[in-house]
Amino acid sequence: MTKKFCCCIALVLAFQLFAAAADNPPQIRINDLSKNPIVVGPFRITISKLKATRLLGTNGTVALRIDNTTSSFATFSPSRLVFVSNVNYQINVFGIALYKSIYNPGDIDLAPGAYIDEQYTLTDEIQLPAKFYYDRHLVAEITK
Which among 51, 61, 65, 114 could disulfide-bond with 46, CB atoms 3.0 to 4.6 Å apart, if both were Cys? Predict the structure, then answer.
């Protein structure tokens, strides 16, 4: 009887810990983004560069390394990347910059264990602190 009770208590505590972790994503300083990869589903996403504010009339940009951590193909969708600024304004991926032009970024099928480096132009500047979402999941809060 006590073994079952202890197992039940352990499960309840583990569930509460998991739920609390899901509600409180890691807070990462903007200068530490490249040192703190974020695991989301099959991907390990590392923000290698984030230009949150406009520079010379351009929108914000984000450079990412996306690793497929699984043993099967996985589809990465840039359109599922979302930033929400400190005034609750949503910033999306606008395009991918190639050869001084901006193209609509499509989904990318990543081979097992493969990675890509991509740089995306955003729809606007990001005012920090900002929430970072992928695939409708809050995965981090970016701070100054």
Answer: 65
- How many distinct structural domains can be found in the chain? 1
Q: What is the DSSP string of 14-39?
A: HHHHHHHHHHSPPEEEGGGGGG--EE
> How many residues does the structure list for the chain?
144
Please say whether the dihedral angle defined by the alpha carbons of residues 90, 92, 48 and 46, taken in this order, is positive or negative: positive
Asked whether residue 95 is assigned to any structural domain, the reply reads yes
Task: Count Cβ atoms within 10 A of the Cβ of residue 50 and give its class: 0-12 exposed, 13-18 middle, 19 or more buried.
Answer: buried
CATH of the domain at 114: 2.60.40
Residue 4 banded pLDDT, cuts 50, 70, 90: low
Is 31 within the bounds of a domain? yes
Residue 15 lies in a domain: no
Considering all CA atoms of the chain, what is the largest pairwise distance in Å, rounded to the nearest integer?
Answer: 69
Its pTM stands at 0.78
- Token pair listed for 55: 């520079």
The one-letter code for the residue type at 76 is F
Domain extent, residue 76, equals 26-143
16 lies in a domain?
Answer: no
Phi, psi of 13 (to 5 degrees): -65, -40
